[in-house]
Amino acid sequence: MRFEFATAGRIIFGNGTLSQVGPAAREMGRRTLVVTGSDPVRAELLLAGLRNHAVEYVTFPVSEEPTTLLAREGTQVAIEAGCDLVIGFGGGSIIDAAKAVAALAANGGDPLDYLEIVGRSQPLTRTSLPVIAIPTTAGTGAEATMGAVITDPATHRKIDVVSPLMAPRLALVDPEVTVSLPPGMTAATGMDALTHSVEGYTATLAHPLTDAIHRQAIELLGKYLLRAYRDGSDRNARYHTMMASMIAGIGFPNSGLGAVHGLALPLGGHFNIAHGVANAILLPHVMAFNLPAARARLRDIAVALGAPRKSAAGAIDHVFALRRELKLPVLASFGVGEEHLDALARDALGRNSNCVTNPRPVTEADAKEIYRAALREQ
Question: pTM of the predicted model, to two decimals?
Answer without folding.
Answer: 0.95
